[in-house]
Structures are given as C-alpha cells and as structure tokens.
Amino acid sequence: VGLRLLLSPLGSNVVVRTACCSVGICFPVYSTFKAIESKNKEDQDQWLIYWAVYGSFSIVEVFSDKLISWFPLYYHVKLAFLIWLQLPPSCGSRQLYVRYLRPFLLKHQTTLDQIVGGTSSEINRLLLKHEREIQFLKVVLRKSFGT
C-alpha cells in the first residue's frame, strides 16, 4: 500500500516530498556517518561527491522550485533523480560531478574563492560586532534547555 501511494501519479505530494527528504537527506546523512567511521576513502569520496552535487541541485532548486513544482509528477521525478544520484551501478552524482560540476568549479575557482573569502570576512566582522548579544543568547538558550 505504501509503495503504491508513493508511486501513484495521483498520490499525495506530502508523501512524495517526505520520501524525497528521506532519500535525499536522511539516508545520505547516515551513510556519510558510516563512511567517516569506516575510514574507507572510496565511500568518503562517494558521499562527498554526492553532497557537492546535492548542494548544487538544492541551490538551483531554490530559484526554480516555485515554477517547476507545478509540473505534474515533479516530486516523483525528483525522487527518482535523488535515487539515481546514490545508486552504485549508475553513480549519478559522480557522473554529474565529473561532467559538469568539477569543470564549472575549476573554471570559476578564483572568483568563487574571492566571494567565499569576502563573505567569510563579513560574517566574522558581523559576529565580532554583535559578540555581546550572541553571548547573551547563549546564556538564555542554556538556561532554557538546561545544558
């Protein structure tokens, strides 16, 4: 029944969106943990590449989601895509990384380094400027949660 509901074109978007979250985030988080703990470089590389591709996909999706989420079966296609990214036979994330993401990042590496460096400096400046407020918030949260 669950699989039928998940794969049904008329199935609830809530069910399919939950499946996308589970497949796209929850399973990879645990798999990444297992790869780190096993110290297996191949597994670690696989999951680093997955997260790089997933993060890139998420950035694109932020800007396009309102438009493309209206297409019929969008979340079903997204679920299939997330599964394809992870499956060892297809190694979809590795294919996308090697063909598109890596060349793009290599080409724009200098510019991206400047953007990241500038952004990091601004964030540090902002944190230093509001250090007292941050410390106050930490105290309030510790008291609230008893840690």
UniProtKB/TrEMBL annotation:
Q: How does it sit in the membrane?
A: Multi-pass membrane protein
Q: Record's superkingdom?
A: Eukaryota
Annotated localization: Membrane
Q: Name one Pfam family in it.
A: TB2_DP1_HVA22
For this record, an example GO cellular component is:
membrane
Entry's InterPro entries? TB2_DP1_HVA22
Give the protein family.
Belongs to the DP1 family.
Q: What is this protein called?
A: HVA22-like protein
Q: Native species of this protein?
A: Taxus chinensis
**What broad taxonomic lineage does this protein's source fall under?**
Eukaryota, Viridiplantae, Streptophyta, Embryophyta, Tracheophyta
